[in-house]
Specification:
The chain is an alpha+beta fold. The protein is built from 6 helices and 18 strands. A hairpin with a 2-residue loop joins strand 10 and strand 11.
Amino acid sequence: MANKTLIGCAAALLVAGGAVGGNMYAAKKLEHAYRNNFNLDDKRLAVTVSEFNMGAMSGSAKWSAAITPDLCSPDASLSAISEDTISLGLSGYTIRSKISVKNPDTGKLYHLFDAETQKSWFGGTHTDITAKDTLTEDGAKAEWQADAHFDVKSNANGHSLSNLSVNVPRFALDLPNGEGSFLLENAVLKSDGGAPSLAAMQSGKGLLTVQSFSVKAQQDGKPFSVGISDLQINSSQTVGKDKFDAEAGYAIGAIKVSGGDKDFAFEQMKLNFGVKGLDAAVFAKLAPLMEQQAQRCVRPEEIAKVTKENALSALNTGFTLESKGNQIRLGNSGAKADGELVFSPAKAASTDEWFQQVQQHMKYKAEASVDKQFLREAAKIIGSSMGQPMPEEELEKNINMLAQTPFAEDQGDKIVWKVQQ
């Protein structure tokens, strides 16, 4: 029994010793990350650690960061400050941060958000961010509530962001003396992969939904407001071996305007567009340049130059542009439009030559329709806002002229345009 007890104690000491040794090693790696710009090779972020204390299982750190979003504008920088508490566990360590930003003019600190980051021993991290505060300054008042969640993984190209989710239940801004206000409610952003980005060249989807946001102001001493409800923006990109597809869609339940001579609302608005079969080579050439933005000033002219130099390859390969399911309604009337433009492969020696020959390798098909009542209602709104309403007789004359334009067909209560090549 004594031998078994001795062996058990020895084993426990070995395990404990290994855990302590492992935690000491983890603590050194963590301190190195803090003092090495969080292991980010990015000159847009400069981290300075003023204090780092780490015991066997817990610790703390104080740091500040100078953030320069665009290295071409070094004076437009932000200063952030954080106080972190650190705890180690079986799966990794947890860092809880209180992030504040500094007003560059007054030096005053404003608490921005709290963050909890879980760093696993295998290198991945998960971060939860919460923000809820009220700020009153110079007669203006701002209130906000938000949370965000995302994962960061290390890879051959550095770091990648995934599973992004941002939720803003409320953001309100009231200007002094009743000059105006802004209110955003229930905004949600989600991305299932890396946030869609031409530079990253990763497949992914994103979705933004907003229940409502409104703006109220004074116009010529009279109250004026614009409200948007049920906004949805979705985007996706698919990156293949040689081809690139992208789609984007916008939908708005209603845009309501009040305060003029006549209140009105545009409803059920939809706008969609996409590109298919585009040569991915042009983006592959752009990606390194985009990555260099973390190290130096990359001016728009430089990006435009590289884009132009590699655009011919994409044009000659051929691709398809499409926009379908577009619509807008005003009361009981509306307008619709669909279109597709196909460019077949070409052998142009320059972009100028490609555009000169574009008619030879281009096919298109488009159809649009508009209710005549929609034209009448829209004309009344425009005339009312300009203080010059159009006489009814002149309005009907203009509608009849529109029905006689090329490719138009008068179908009684609506006008339809069809064109194809």
